[in-house]
Amino acid sequence: MAAPECRPDDAQHQKASRPADATVNMDPEKQPADAANLYSIFTPWQKRGIVLGASVAAFFSPLTAQIYLPASTLISEDLGVSDTQINLTITTFMVFQGLAPMFIGSLADNGGRRPAYVVCFLIYLTANVGLALAPNYDALLGLRCLQSAGSSSTVALCYAVVADVITSAERGQYMAFTVVPTVFGPAIGPLVGGLLSQHLGWRAIFWFLAIFSGVAMVIFVFFFPETCRRIVGDGSVTPPPSHRSVWQAVRLRRRKELGSKDPMAEAAPDHASSATGQNKIRFRTVFGSLFLLFEKETGVLLWTSSVVYMGYYCIGTAIPSLFAERYDYDGIEVGLMYIPLAVGSVAAATIVGPLFNRNFKRHCIKRGIPYHQGQQQDLSNMPIEQARMEIGVPLLCLTGGGLISWGWAMHAESHVAVPCALSFVLGVGLIGYNNTTNILLADVHPGRAGTATAANNLARCLVGAGASAAIVPLIDAIGVGPAFTLVGSLYFVAIIPALILVKCGMKWRAESKGTDERGKLGKAKGLESGGEQVSDDEKTGQ
User: Fold this and answer.
1) Region (Disordered): which ranges (predicted)?
2) What is the mean pLDDT of residues 390-407?
3) What single string gives the DSSP state of each residue in 325-354?
4) Structural domains in the chain, sorted by start
């Protein structure tokens, strides 16, 4: 069962496409006058709970990548392999981290969020149990790939869930908080991994992840609702049984037993019968993320974002060796050096997030576009790229300057407070611009946020893998100061495509929309002509 697709950039389309027998699950006396135009029927606290749950699930990807690192030496000794072979498990993890969301994100946009989450958790849980019991290196390598596939897709799903329930007017602040787990994972992962491997052995790391993910999966199965707008519209349409949480299934069954006239429950069978034709999985659906990389607007945005996020990988990779060599820090002390970066990401959520919302409102008022946080505005005639990049471009300058300063502070071996303070600034800039990209992707690709985020993840991982491999040799060759001057200068170069996006983005969106509409029209005509041909053939046969 699926509701007709509700496109977030067209509130009127959403209203018109809602099934006639689907009712808003609210007390009629408490409904606002314009409830039919609401983007989502979830209350503010329900939205916060949904976003929090999705963010917790997204926490597994960065946590899993980092918690493994402190135990690498112990694992190589226990399994009798070289450090190079252990490093291969890290490389393959990053490769699958980029590839897996390309499939899961696209399928989740068509088949629903809950099934995708359950699949991810089952894969991840199974991989962790297998890793905890891994008898040899081959098993470790294969299961690390499986572990990466299960955990990395939750990041794309997180942003897709936010796009499902949050409007463009309030998306800035909500989207900002979803990035916090991405930074806290690297901050606490090495600490937890070091403590577990030191006191309980390296296998305890994977038992910990298995238990943690098992608890999270149970909570998701029992309480997390389906949010995909292809399935439930604005949340008012009852999903099919396979997409219902246990809590929702029990509630509907109890109402049925009590004889309650629940319009939603009565409407469910009709909606279920219409799902089959709407959520077919096609080649372009599965590989939708790859196609997005070569679209004009999305391609410019994603490749610019990947270059910018490269700085995050460079900092994360360089911190262990630089602080160990220059400040004689041990593993736990090095792990603490990630905390200023994490605190900066929280500051980005609390400071930069509201700025996006405020600037969006300003542009709506300036252009006479009706503004309401609970309703989705029509963005077809709004320069949304300008509204987002007016915040994003200053963040590029802040981050570029911060990277150069951080590099020279480490080069001069200044007091540890200096690189820590600069790490905080980098957290604000890096995560703030990352939010710019994610918010704009959700604005430009309504209904396909999972696919768009997966494309962003793929581009970032490809560039990040190269940056992680190159930064330490680059530092050894030219020094830490010149190396980060080179990296930081790329941020100022990235301002050029960002400004091109501001100038041409709206025109590219219109062209893309026109192409899509012509494609749908051509497909419809093809079906009609095919039907006429069948009729002619039947007549000839008679």
Assistant:
1) 1-28, 511-542
2) 93
3) HHH---HHHHHHTTHHHHHHHHHIIIIIHH
4) 36-233+283-517 (1.20.1250.20), 237-274 (no CATH)
